[in-house]
Amino acid sequence: MNPAEFQNIARAEDEMWWFAGMRKILEAWIGRLPDAKFGRVLEGGCGTGYTSNWLAGRYGWQMFPVDLDFAGLSFGTDSGVARMVQSDISRLPYEDGAFDAVVSLDVLVHFPRGDEAAALKEFWRVLKPGGKLILRVSALDTLRSRHSIFAHERQRFTRPRIVEAVRGAGFEVLDASYANSLLLPVAWFKFRVWEELTQQEPQSGVEVPNSWLNSLLYAPLAFEGFWLSRGGRFVLGQSILVLATKPY
User: Fold this and answer.
1) CA 12 to mean position of chain CA atoms
2) Domain boundaries along the sequence of the chain
3) Is-contact 60 40, C-beta < 8 A?
4) How far apart are CA 97 and CA 129, in angstroms?
5) Assigned architecture for domain 3-245
6) Model pLDDT, residue 71
7) Which of 55-69, 85-99, 157-171, 183-197 has the lowest mean pLDDT?
8) What is the number of other CB atoms lying within 10 angstroms of the CB of residue 212?
9) Alpha helices (runs of H) in 40-82, residue ranges in sequence order
10) End-to-end CA distance of the chain
11) Does residue 233 register a pLDDT over 80?
12) How far apart are CA 65 and CA 76, in angstroms?
């Protein structure tokens, strides 16, 4: 992750439509697990730690947030996020079987293509047998944007490729779906047409718009959360969600 992006994220993740909407989607996705009453949960690639705090408050999980970049961790430590550790998620400083679940959101995209396998194998190692992996990655190379370049994103996935990678690490995949789907046509036009026509330089797209636009953009993600909570799926989207388990 570009260290300069963490300050933008810290300012926006409480209110910005994308963060708030993706939390609704994540909540619906976690709801697909038959029992999400986990004790110890690792967040692999926690950024500022905001999501770890949210998960702890929402589900009562004991979170262990890990990130490679001190620029993100510093925001978490300043705001009182507990148990933050600076570490490469492909070389985690925890014993085998230390966690009931691992959450990793939009982190594997920062690995060179193929290198995500090392992180997935580490997630498998630190999970207890029967432990769950809750994963989100960015989708579709055609959606690579100026923001992707700014944030140092190195790859995007298709659903079959991320499912294959998760299985290759030893997991049993329970479910997988695209998400952030309803705004896909708008995103494609912005990234493949508008940004090309205007020759924009790489820049952050993380900022809170005015209230009416923020609410307008949040609404499709909130609906997706509702749809996923009712067992629905999406065949294309800007993100991919995966649920997997470490076999006994």
Assistant:
1) 16
2) 3-245
3) no
4) 7
5) 3-Layer(aba) Sandwich (3.40)
6) 85
7) 183-197
8) 8
9) 50-59, 70-78
10) 34
11) yes
12) 9
What b/e sequence results for 62-84 when a residue is b if at least 16 CB atoms lie within 10 Å of its CB, and e otherwise?
ebbbbbbbebbbbbbeeeebebb
pLDDT tier for residue 56 given thresholds of 50, 70 and 90: very high
| Tokens of residue 203, six digits | 């820049």
**pLDDT at residue 27 in the model:** 97
CA 210 – CA 87 distance, rounded (Å): 36
Backbone Cα Rg of the chain: 17
Per-residue pLDDT averaged across 2-18, rounded?
Answer: 89
Separation between Cα atoms, residue 31 and residue 229, nearest integer Å: 7
Which pLDDT does position 163 carry in this prediction?
Answer: 98
CA quadruple 179, 184, 187, 193: dihedral positive or negative? positive
What pTM was computed for the model? 0.94
**Residue 195 dihedral angles phi and psi, to the nearest 5°:** -65, -30
In 3D space, the residue among 63, 37, 71, 154 whose CA is nearest the CA of residue 107 turns out to be 154
Instruction: Please tell me the predicted confidence (pLDDT) of residue 196.
Output: 82
Which element (helix H / strand E) includes 135?
strand 127-138
